[in-house]
Design brief:
Blueprint lengths: L4 E6 L7 E6 L1 H8 L13 H8 L6 H8 L3 H7 L8 H11 L3 H7 L5 H10 L35
Antiparallel strand pairs: 1-2
């Protein structure tokens, strides 16, 4: 069973790396004898993690609405070993305004090293937003006596 647990290294405040196990689908299947959905490093499934991160009870309806699926599809998917996949995490992150890379790391779809190497490889630029000079004008609505009927409009 030890070969199906991937160890991920994480550093906190540039100190010694901390290793924590990320349980793979093969580990969950070997351990529990059935196919289990992905869990985070604390063993929480997606709904339980959302309850924790959002400080409240997240309804299953909010999750399957975010995923764009029916309730029956959602309840079938949560039993599968590849739930949640990266696309489902992206939909959930968009709906609940969460960090997509953070959830990928939590569910073992990406390691922290991969996130850091991606961030270090891409050039970072900071842009400032400039407020364009806008001219304020007061627009007066035309009086009824100044209006003319449209040529293409049928008569009343």
């Amino acid at each position: 069973m030890g070969d199906v647990i991937q160890n991920c290294d994480a550093t906190v405040n540039n100190e010694q790396p901390i290793q924590f196990p990320v349980r793979t689908a093969q580990y969950r299947e070997a351990r529990y004898g059935v196919s289990m959905p992905r869990t985070d490093e604390n063993g929480r499934q997606l709904k339980a993690l959302l309850d924790y991160l959002l400080d409240g009870d997240v309804d299953a309806k909010a999750i399957y609405d975010a995923l764009g699926t029916s309730s029956s599809t959602y309840y079938r998917r949560i039993k599968e070993s590849d739930y949640p996949n990266a696309e489902e995490l992206r939909h959930v992150c968009d709906r609940f305004d969460l960090s997509y890379p953070d959830l990928q790391v939590r569910f073992g779809l990406m390691s922290r090293e991969e996130v850091w190497s991606y961030l270090e490889s891409s050039p970072v630029s900071v842009a400032t937003v400039t407020d364009p000079a806008t001219e304020l004008r007061t627009i007066r609505r035309a009086k009824l006596s100044e209006l003319a009927p449209r040529e293409d409009a049928p008569p009343l």
